[in-house]
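anyone else get weird line breaks when pasting these?? whatever heres mine. first is seq + tokens for prot A
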Amino acid sequence: MRNIDKKYTDPLDLIWIQAAAQMGMRVERSAAVNASWNGRGVLTIGTPETLDPDDCLAQMILHETCHALCEGPESLLKPDWGLESFNPAKKIHEYACLRLQAALADQYGMRSFFAATTMFRSYYDQLPANPLEVGDDPAIQLASVAWERATHGSWAFPLHDALRRTAIIARALHGWANEDSLWHAQGETDCES
């Protein structure tokens, strides 16, 4: 019997779990939730078998990070960033999160990879080339304030480093992924190294 002292870990999981840790979030997995923030430093993400086939841990962490950035620093102390997921009045907050998510992913040519997979996917897919461009959607203002936090706040480096590292993996897989893979057609855009 050989001694096994190492285990395989998905590289993307390593990148995003480390980024979350640098932002003060400990990531745990549970089949009991899709995604949940406890307001005390723990972000719980569903296990692979409970998520949609086009979800990944990286996308889930980015999405929840965007919620935190849209809701502001005070949201870190509130369960689920202070959002009530079934309150229709909170839809603007989901839209703002998606606009920020798209804008961040766009910097690295990864918008489709980091697409939302919830019932709000059609909104995400219809976002303009510049999801933060001035317009009549009230979510733009929330997302624009969150963009400042994402690019100039304490989370800027770990967030952008994780996006950059993800884009590097995408470029390495360019031309190798099957059409039904989330990685297909990713990494075509020249991104920062």
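and prot B, same format (seq, then tokens)
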Amino acid sequence: MRHAAIIGPMAEPKTKPAPARAKRPRQAAPAAAPPPAVLAEPELARGRTPPLDPKEQHELLHRGVALFNGLRYWHAHEAWETLWRAADEKDRDFYQGLIMVAAGLLHLQRRNARGARNKLSEGLDKLKKYEPTYRDLVLNELVGRGEVILADLNEGRLPYLIPPVLRFVEMDRERDFNS
């Protein structure tokens, strides 16, 4: 006597069918032209951002200086780049000079003499226009130390990095503490 075979549930197919495609939404009708007041804002050049408020400028500059003095050149560069993108024309070379000096010192940390020489040279040239101080930073010390490092690089030596320090101009103690 033959027994009927017990058949279990059918196995699922190895591949599942692709889900049904969603229909592409229809494009909305073009928006009406914005009112003239919106168009009155000046166009920013590529890579530029709107001006920052003075408090934010102050915080970014100080954060960049603290990072620079802590040998965190990449992070200092990032803080100052935000300032550079939003800066007016008279400050752009100042921030770009700080950025380039930080980039040059980063290259030096990484033992890349060519990159260090190029960025330091460009950055120091930009900062010289702002010596001895600018935005409460003592630049002549930074430029002087940078030139010593650059001279070593130009003579084919990869200097031991005794990092330059950015220093703020001394406070006016009478005004700050006797108010």
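btw re prot B: The first strand starts at residue 133 and ends at 134. The two ends are 113 Å apart (CA to CA).
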